[in-house]
Design brief:
Elements: H1 2-21, E1 35-39, H2 46-53, H3 57-63, E2 77-81, E3 87-88, E4 97-105, H4 112-118, H5 124-130, E5 143-152, H6 158-161, H7 206-210, H8 233-242, E6 245-255, E7 266-269, E8 278-283, E9 289-296, E10 307-312, H9 313-319, E11 326-333
Parallel strand pairs: 6-10, 7-9
Antiparallel strand pairs: 1-2, 3-5, 4-5, 6-11, 7-10, 8-9, 8-11
Helix pairs in contact: 2-3
Length: 334
């Protein structure tokens, strides 16, 4: 009987230690609704959790739709909001603070571009710097630092119990000075983002995104431009030589862009081809074709319903379609 009691006590003690020692700073949510998950350990309450995560205790209760007066239960999972008080993607720690890396685990069919957009448009350059990345390619399951939990080093138990290492030496980098994707959120897809292809020449690089090929603004157009299909024609031929092309038909629309007017680099959104794939878009009425590089999936908004592709207005100018919807044929290696 005494042995059984000792075993039970040991299990309880082990469970208590495990609660205290494994706080995993894995980010959840997207956009402005970012949070962490915390499992309540023995003797923890709203006040102690607030000190751990640098938040007012009543804010935690409200965020979880809980009654502050009812307290918390051991084993209960709650959400810890990440906001300007306790989450940093640019500002350094103050004298009494420490910054703890917050991670995102790369999911299937997910690239740096989509991760950047999902987490406050954190600059690709910063993600690569924090994670010591030399290219834009990331493997499924890779934990990526996408920001830092900002806590009081003398009050927060997370400093001692977090499974990640503190990194108080994050340099201050203002948003205006950082290299960031300059993309209008109105035309961004929500989550969908397939894996980038392995071939370097086919990748949608950070530089291309940062040069804002899809920025919406008034563009001074050049009438009747002709780049013989565009800069990416040779890459299209290389791709279809390696894989037999897939042929589709459907409707096309146009987005305004600053790219392509001087160099013939045309871009598009498409749901069926991987980012970096070159698509041959042929206007069914004229038979003319252009070669456009896929940036991402088509934005999931009402006006894009039923579209097969959205091409840059510079590409549409070469096709001679204007900026209206038109019927087209698509060809690309899949």
């Amino acid at each position: 009987m005494s042995k059984l009691l000792l075993i039970i006590v040991a299990i309880f003690f082990s469970a208590t230690v495990s609660f205290a020692q494994h706080i995993d700073l894995q980010i959840k949510g997207t956009g402005s609704k970012l949070y962490l998950e915390h499992v309540i350990a023995p003797k923890q309450n709203f006040y102690s959790i607030g000190r751990m995560y640098n938040l007012p205790p009543k804010d935690i209760a409200a965020y979880n739709n809980l009654q502050f007066e009812n307290g918390l239960s051991v084993g209960q999972t709650i959400r810890i909001p990440l906001n300007e008080n306790n989450f940093s993607q640019a500002t350094p720690a103050s004298q009494n603070e420490v910054l703890l890396p917050v991670h995102h685990t790369v999911a299937p069919k997910e690239g740096l571009y989509r991760i950047s957009i999902n987490y406050n448009k954190v600059p690709l350059a910063l993600i690569k710097k924090w994670n010591h990345l030399q290219s834009d390619e990331v493997s499924i399951g890779t934990p990526l630092i996408i920001g830092y939990l900002k806590v009081n080093k003398d009050q927060s138990a997370v400093v001692a119990t977090s499974s990640t290492n503190a990194n108080p030496a994050v340099k201050s980098e203002s948003k205006s000075e950082s290299v960031k994707p300059d993309i209008n959120p109105e035309i961004l897809p929500p989550v969908k983002n397939p894996d980038a292809q392995k071939q370097e020449e086919n990748n949608v690089t950070a530089k291309e995104v940062e040069q804002s090929p899809i920025r919406i603004e008034t563009v001074k157009t050049k009438s009747n431009i002709n780049f013989s299909g565009g800069y990416f024609k040779k890459l299209y031929n290389d791709q279809v030589e390696r894989k037999a092309p897939v042929n589709e038909t459907g409707s096309a629309s146009v987005f305004k862009s600053t790219s392509g007017w001087q160099d013939g680099k045309y871009y598009c959104f498409n749901n069926d081809a991987l980012p970096g794939t070159i698509i041959k878009v042929t206007d069914n009425s004229s038979g003319k074709s252009v070669f456009v590089k896929v940036l991402d999936a088509i934005p999931d908004i009402k006006q894009n319903s039923g579209l097969a592709v959205i091409i840059s207005n510079s590409a549409a100018e070469e096709l001679g379609t204007g900026e209206n919807k038109f019927d087209c044929a698509l060809s690309f290696a899949k």
